[in-house]
Amino acid sequence: MAELLKGKPVADALTETVKNKVTELKEKGMTPTFAILRVGEKENDLAYERGARKRAAACGIEIREALLPEDTTDTALQDTIRELNQDPSVHGILMFRPLPKNLDERAACALIDPAKDVDGITAGSMAGVYAGNGLGFCPCTAQSVMEILKFYGVDPKGKRAVVVGRSLVIGRPVAMLLLQANATVTICHTKTVDLPEVARNAQILVCAAGHEGAVGKDCFSEDQVVIDVGINYSKTLNKLVGDADFAAAEGIVSAITPVPGGVGSVTTAVLMDHVVRAAAR
Question: How many whole angstroms separate alpha carbon 219 and alpha carbon 77?
């Protein structure tokens, strides 16, 4: 049976590190603070917000609210972003997406100061990730993958890594982070010829396709570490599942993250780490 790479101990360890950094900053007269910028009240946003608030309280980080109604205008949203950019007491901005369809999401993202972009959604942050120059912040979910590998002693150096998925939120930034960690990286997608053959040769397999069952039994091999980023509701199983066929993988691979309880549980801890790093800068 595969080892379960649970996210809770990773998140707890990272939270302790962040708490110590917060204490040091407070001793210097600075309280790390980030703003939650939310338009409307979508349940997914509210659920993530509850988790972020709980993690922030555990770390000693303060939160500012920037809450706008569902029918807000581009002008009101962009004015709010400008105010947060210019407020020296706000070190990070977390804007929930997707925004309502009546709003220009691309323009809103572009307006956020990359120095305060703690969830890696601006072009400036992405450029920093791809250049590997330490500027900006990586998307929290992508960084969570690396935190899990580090915590469980999986060094990507010299290993073959396959990322299934090429989104700007997870697939591509994860691939860049693995590359910076000296893995040999292949990115797969819906047009990949013979995906199972490519995936089976991976020593580290990251599943970030975004739909249930995208990575099946024929993609797994012995001694493989599988990081499943997907979160999907399975009508057949009546529960949350990942992108990987967990039941099949568990009997083949050496280690795998569960869903839920894996990557997702680390993201808010990574977010707090980004806020503290932004404040320290």
Answer: 44
Evaluated on CA atoms 166, 262, 95, 123, the torsion sign reads negative
Distances (CA, A) of 130 to 119, 136, 138: 15, 11, 10
φ/ψ of residue 256, rounded to 5: -155, 145
Which of 101, 69, 108 lies closest to 85 in space, CA to CA? 108
CA distance 62 to 269: 14
Q: 197 Cβ partners below 8 Å, 6+ apart?
A: none
The tens digit of pLDDT for each residue in 221-250 reads 999 999 999 989 888 889 889 999 999 999
- DSSP-derived letter for residue 215 is B
Q: What's this model's pTM, rounded to 2 decimal places?
A: 0.94
Beta-bridge mates of residue 207: 164, 228
- Tokens for 85, please give them: 């950019």
| Phi then psi dihedrals of residue 142, to 5 deg | -65, -45
Write out the two tokens for 96. Answer: 């929930």
CA dist., res. 84 & res. 64, Å (int): 10
Gap between the Cα atoms of 83 and 278, Å rounded: 17
Chain segment 200-220, per-residue pLDDT in tens = 999 999 999 999 989 999 999
